[in-house]
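Shall we go through a protein fold together, starting from nothing but its sequence? Please make up or recall a protein chain and show it to me in full. Go ahead whenever you are ready, and we will take it from there.
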Amino acid sequence: MLLGFIVRNEYVRRHRTLHIVNALSQPATVEIRGIERVQVRQGTTELTLPEGRHHASISGVAPEELDFELRTGFFDRWFNDPVWVLNVGGAAVLTLISATYSRNSPPPSFSFHFGQTFAFFPDISHPFTSLPESVRMKSHESRTLTQLEVHSGKPLGVFQYFEGRGQWAEALRLAEVTLRFQPDDAWMLHSYVTLAGSHRLASRAQEFLKPGLRNRPVQIEWHRAYQGLKQDRESESRLAAEYDTLLKAEPDNAPPRQFWSGDRSC
């Protein structure tokens, strides 16, 4: 029996599952150096890897090079259910749900995870599968199961959840992850700018939006959002200078001017 346990432990060590999640509209190619190369369309794909250090190359959408590690303790391989996720671009919103089953079950608790390409969850009973409606056990017993899933709704719903709880930094971080890959999401863009402007975080939003002013084709709403954060006389003067610089660099791509200081108006 002892030999059997040791053999089983070694088998588990050599056959770990890496869940690759792509929430973006375009496919990504993921290559694990020396092991496998796979194209991941929208959804979830699994790869079997041994524990240890690995290098991943992501190409196509959200290109990235990263090192990651799969590792657990000897006894953990018998008693825990770890989950490793490669989240392309960190774009997917992962929902972690913890549900306790008992005679008087409390409501499930949940948390959201996003923005990191590689994530580790130490003990997940139901990775990317549904929790059962009920669990058979004695009346005095209780059992807690955990589920990890890709959030099926729009990111804006999670943004509003964070906003409602006063977690403004998390709301802004989610918006920035979303807008990095979906810059035409007008509702998220508007919510992002409104929240930043309401809590004296306009400078953060300006720094995030500024590189996108050079995106082509020109995105009108993006420019309007950026301009809307600079509604004072001194800022308007600097804004006019910024747009003059953009226009000189690309005279055939005149950016939209929502407002200008002095005698330049729109």
